Amino acid sequence: MLRLEDGTEMRGIGFGGCAPVSGEVVFNTGMSGYVEALTDPSYRGQILVLTYPLVGNYGVPAPRAAASLGAPYESDHIQVQALVVQNLVDHPSHHASRRSLAEWLAAENVPGVTGIDTRTLTRRLREHGTMRGWLHPAGMSPEQAGRDAAAVDMHEELFRLVAPRVAVRHEGGERTILLVDIGAKDHIVRSLLARGVSVLRAPWHADLARLADGCDGVLIGNGPGDPKDLMPLVAQVRGLLARELLPIFGVCLGNQILALAAGADTYKLPYGHRGVNQPVQDQVTRHCYITSQNHGYAVADASLPPGWESWFINVNDGTNEGIRSRHGPHFSVQFHPEASPGPQDTAFLFDDFLRVVSAHARPQPARAAAR
């Protein structure tokens, strides 16, 4: 049974794990990509509702090898608290499928429920805003479910759960990008490596000033939750902004962190933007792009300080989708340029960032010695 904090109860058929759980109930409008969504650290602590009515039809590929960055996985395990679908496919058909969606969730003890009218559920979330929910066996009382449900609290500890314990270097080229990991998707690393740069992937609570000394640029990655729970990171990024020639690029949560560091404000959206069909518009070129998004907070445009400007807006609701500095090589976007919804509408942003990095890069040690 799925129960919302407003008293709504919806019954279905369980699959996967069977332990009761609780979390923020959110919906994703993508027609595919459930493997990527389930392993996206931005969904940590949440109960995910997939609005597309047929889920699991292409199965799940072979498990990601330890310490690898193999697609389509975005991390090494399922991140959501639970999964809610309308129709679960038990017999998938795809050449790369190695197990069903239900078998995958069972292997990682993540509960799921099928037979839920996800259209009705999504309309309720759109009307009333994101709510907390509980998924538990039908015979369990609400009181017992509340006591027994596994939950992930949305505070600083959440961000420590999704970040790596130590910095890890991925060799890919002469230049090095410092990836500030607050739950960053693996495809951000894959996108940078494919463009011929090395990546130093570091937890958000590391000494970023020291690590940045050996890097040519900084990318602040995505992650879950409220950016204002990360004020220690905001303070570190503010220090990096003081290095006026250090290129900084933010993605998703990184957009909000950069905005807070610059002096702007953020706020919680009624039900967030989660899906692969979110239209955004570049405020300079007026070009529109189809983007992949997964966030529940946004930057308040009116709060941007002098020297900063809105870069992209969401065509659906006019909310901020990116900012940039008028004076330094600092910019960010609220959507995911590493995703491919359009199919590759905004991947050029990585190329733009690396061009800025090259333009501001210091001489390489070997070359300097040769002179």
How would you characterize the overall build of this protein?
The structure is a single chain. The protein has helices spanning 34-38, 101-107, 118-128, 142-148, 156-162, 186-193, 208-212, 231-241, 253-262, 348-360, 365-370, and strands at 2-4, 9-10, 13-16, 21-28, 46-50, 54-55, 82-84, 87-88, 111-114, 131-135, 168-170, 176-181, 198-203, 217-220, 248-251, 266-282, 288-299, 308-314, 320-325, 330-333. It has 371 residues and is α/β, with parallel strands linked by helices. The strands form three sheets. A ten-stranded mixed sheet has the order 11-13-12-14-15-20-19-18-16-17, with helices on both faces. It has an eight-stranded mixed sheet with strand order 2-1-10-4-5-7-9-3. Helix 8 (231-241) packs across helix 9 (253-262). The longest helix is centred in the C-terminal third of the chain and has 13 residues, at 348-360. The radius of gyration is 21 Å and the shape is globular. Mean pLDDT is 93; it is low at 367-371.
